[in-house]
Specification:
CATH topology of the largest domain: Rossmann fold
Number of strands: 6
Structural class: alpha/beta
Order of helices and strands: EEHHHHHEHEHEHEH
Helix content: 40-55%
CATH class of the largest domain: Alpha Beta
Strand order of the largest sheet: 1-6-5-2-3-4
Shape: globular
Amino acid sequence: MKNIHIYTHRKLKDYSLIVADMDGTLYFDTPMRIIMCIELFFYHLFHPWKIKDLLILITFRNIREGASITDEEDFCSAQYDITALKFSVEPEYVRTIVHKWVHDIPMKWMYLFRDKKLIQSLAQLREDGIKIVVFSDYPVKEKVARFGLEIDGSYSTSDTEINMLKPNRKGLDVISETMSVPCEEILVIGDRYEKDGRLAENFNSDYIILKKTSLPRRIQLTKII
């Protein structure tokens, strides 16, 4: 049976390109989720008239997760339209809410929960000549800068040339072509098999799915660094 956490028999340094996910990968997802639940609770406790915004956010996330295994064209844009239609608001209003709670507010906390071991390892690998890019569901440039990690490229599923959710391979097609690196020389590092692992499998690349907590994750990384 395939080990869905580590599906590579090579060391990180043996690859030409490492494609890392952002959320839940470069920082630990569990403490971030707890903090965000607290943020959402107290914000809406003191702003009860904004409860519709919370429902919009929850609906958007549910629609996105439910569509993550589809190949529907332009769904990265359509998800905002679908959510807006359900609540009789403009798609731009949905985008504003999503950006606030998925990008702006987490920016305050993600450095605290960063995976220092992984970030340091990626920085060292880049110094050794290995290309490092970050590919996530949402724009990542500001988030990566928050960690002080220099990379060779940042990509989002909503980028115009991609516009397809994981695990569709379109993102890796674009990254591979842009970076001039074939699939067998690419390693995907993520935290969810159903997205990052299957993404790599669809592209015939190796991958590692990181554990959710620090110690088990360190053991994983020790095996391949």
